[in-house]
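Batch manifest, entry 17 of 40.
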Amino acid sequence: MTTFKPLIAAMIGVSAMWLLPATPSSAQTVLKFSHTDQQSGGRQAAATIFARKVEELTQGRYKVQVFCCSQLGNDPKNIEQVILGSIDFTVSGTGSYAPHVPTLNLTALPFLVDSYAQGWRLYDESKWLQAQFDKAPAKGFRFLATWEAGFRSMTTKEPLNSPDDAKGKKLRTFPNEMMRWTLEAMGFNIQIMPLPEVYLAIQQGAVSGQENPVDTIYSNKFYEVAPHVTLTNHVYSPIPLAISEKTWQKLSPADQKAVSEAARIAQKFSREFISSNDAKQLKEMADKGAKINAKPNMVAFRSAVQPAYVKAREKFGADVDAILADAEGIRKVTK
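Output type: C-alpha cells
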C-alpha cells in the first residue's frame, strides 16, 4: 500500500522556492491554483502533489501553478474567481462554498463526527452529501476530491475550559452562518475577518482569539498571540478541491480523468499528512510556550450548541435529518 510518510517528512519544511512559479514550456497550458494556507501548511503540500501529478498524468500538456498564502485572494474571492474562470482551482472549507450551495452549511453542524475515519466515510459515502456536491457544476465549479484540514479548535488569549469562559469574548471565524450559530451558542461574540488579518487582530486586541484546525493554527502561528489552545474539536472541517466548470469543460475526457486521478492521489496524501501530524504540531506548539487544553468540559460545550441545531432545522428542514442520519449510521460502525 502506498504511503506518503517520506513525503510528509520532506514537506514539513516547505521551501520558499515553491512560491515562485515555474517557467512553463510553450507546449503547456498553465492552470492557476489559489489557496489561503501558508507555504508550510497541509494545503500547500497537497497542492504541490496535485500539481506534480497533473503534469505527469497529462504527459506535460498541463502545468498547475500554485499560489499560496492568499496571494490571489481570500477564500470567498478564490471561489468567485473559480466560478468566473479567472483561476482554475481552489481548495477551501466546505462551508466556504455554502453561499453558492446553501445546504453545504450543514457540513458545519457541531460534533457531526468524532474521528477522522468517520469524517472520511461521511464525505466518501454519504448519498445526501454527494447530492449537494452534484449541485456545484450548475453554480460554476465542480468538486474533484475532499482534502483534509482537520477538526476545528480554539486559540484564545485567556484559558477556555467551558462555555462560561467564552461569554462576552470576541472570537474570529470565517463567514458561515452555521459557524456563527454554533459559536454564538457557546457564548462568543463573533468577528468575521480574512485569515491573513487574524494574527495582528489578536495581537492588537481586536479579538481575543480564533478557531481553526490544528494545522492552520500551527502554520499561521496563532498560538504565539493566543497561547491557550483548547481542543474542542467542535466542527470537522475538510477542504474540498474545486475546479472551475469553465476549465473542466475545456479539458478532453482523457485529461478530465487525469485531473480527477491527481485530485484523488493528493486527497490520500492530504488525509495522511493532517491526521498523522496533529500530535507532532501540538507538541511543537507546547514546546514554544502554548498551553494545550486537551480535556475541556465537552459535556458543557455539546450541551451549549443545541440551539444551533434548532436554527438549522428551522432553515433547512429535512436536510438536517438526512445528514444526521448518514453521520449516525457511520458513527455506529466506525470509531
